[in-house]
Write a structure and sequence with these properties.
With 384 residues, the protein is of the alpha+beta class. Helix content is 73%, strand content 7%. It folds into two domains: 4-110; 148-382, no CATH class.
């Protein structure tokens, strides 16, 4: 059996007493892989010698040492007497480094791996986390609603603080520029509803009631709901992106430094603009949807526009129009509120802007549909 062997970074000599393990060379991250291979080969070749029982370890030949090299020394010597003997002979800084690495490895070895939770436990945990987030979001939304209502009441006492220019600019952006898309969408949906109604009612010989179907559905539900969904995707996302970009660029902090209230400067003009625009867009949606029904009735059912509006006048009451319009300001306030709140929650990165913009659209659509369903149930129970 060979009693002495030389490697690039260390040598083991049992020919003389005491047995000596000499470390040499550069023990750094650059040689980490090569050190590992030589240590593995050394252990395989001299396992029967018992490296932990070495009488002496000489590290004077090490020219450079870092954390990676210290980790390899611990791997070579283990945590027994050989390592303790080496710590006593090393310079203070190298000894401290080697001792810290050895302690870290020892602590890591004593830690028991955490048991992976079961699928049911993980599912329940995710559900609980989602419920907690929903609760926090609801509390934050209510708090922000209180801030906006307080600012609205305070400014109503001081009309000079209204920012008319900002309100008018937002009305143009959220209302006037949205008229074409709202009119086109509701017109097409009105035509589709009239066509489907005529197809179904033809089996009962009641195609004339297609007029009532189109008028009733658009006055009470479809016009305000479709408009709100469009505003959620178009306006709420725009509010979040605008305020989020301002938050990322620290413009909101600059507004505060000027002694101005961001709620009054940024949020109230957007809320007031949407409160004005939403009812007008809802009315446009009602007219466009009914005109789509008029077109289908004239082409497919031989119901002339004159007959259509005559049936409309006799069979549809004014309360259906009012019930549809009364929901528009509520939806407008919710859309503007969520869009602005998500903008203020942006953390400062482009990814955060995108995430909160998506969140604003999802939340507004969900809440709008939820409120519309609750309103429909309430109106039905009240007999309206």
């Amino acid at each position: 059996m060979t009693q002495a062997s030389d490697f690039e970074f260390f040598s083991w000599n049992t020919h003389s007493a005491p047995n000596t393990l000499r470390l040499q060379g550069i023990w750094t991250l650059d040689n980490y892989t090569l050190l590992g291979r030589q240590i593995e080969h050394f252990h395989a070749e001299y396992a029967n010698l018992g490296i932990l029982s070495a009488d002496h370890v000489d590290a004077e030949g090490i020219t450079a040492l870092d954390t990676a090299g210290a980790s390899r020394i611990v791997e070579l010597l283990g945590a027994g007497e050989a390592l303790n003997g080496l710590l006593a002979t090393l310079p203070a800084e190298r000894g401290a480094l080697l001792q810290a690495v050895a302690a870290t490895k020892r602590d890591a070895g004593t830690k028991t791996p955490k048991a992976r939770p079961s699928l049911a436990t993980e599912l329940l945990g995710r559900i609980g986390l989602s419920m907690e987030r929903a609760w926090q979001q609801s509390a934050m939304l209510l708090g922000f609603m209180g801030l906006t209502l307080e600012a609205l009441v305070r400014n109503s006492v001081h009309p000079s603080r209204w920012r008319i220019t900002s309100v008018v600019a937002q009305i143009e952006d959220t209302g006037l520029n949205a008229v074409p898309i709202v009119a086109l969408l509701t017109f097409m949906v009105g035509a589709v509803i009239a066509f489907l109604g005529a197809t179904v009612l033809a089996d009962f010989g009641a195609t004339v009631y297609t007029v009532n179907l189109v008028a009733f559905s658009f006055l009470r539900e479809f016009a305000v709901l479709l408009t709100a969904i469009l505003m959620a995707g178009r306006t709420a996302s725009a509010f979040t992106a605008q305020l989020g970009s301002m938050k990322a660029n620290e413009e909101i902090d600059a507004i505060r430094m000027l002694g101005l209230n961001p709620i009054e400067v940024l949020v109230l003009p957007r809320i007031l603009a949407l409160l004005v625009s939403m009812p007008l867009l809802t009315f446009v949606g009602m007219i466009s949807g009914i005109l789509g029904g008029v077109l289908v009735c004239a082409v497919a059912l031989d119901i002339t526009p004159t007959m259509f509006f005559s049936i409309f006048k006799e069979g549809i009451e004014l309360r259906h129009f009012l019930l549809g319009m009364v929901k528009a300001p509520i939806f407008a306030y919710v859309i503007a509120l969520i869009g602005c709140l998500e903008g203020f929650k942006v953390s400062g990165s482009a990814q955060s802007v995108g995430e909160h913009t998506t969140s604003a659209v999802v939340q507004t659509i969900f809440i709008v549909i939820l409120l519309d369903a609750l309103a429909a149930l309430f109106f039905m129970e009240m007999g309206w």
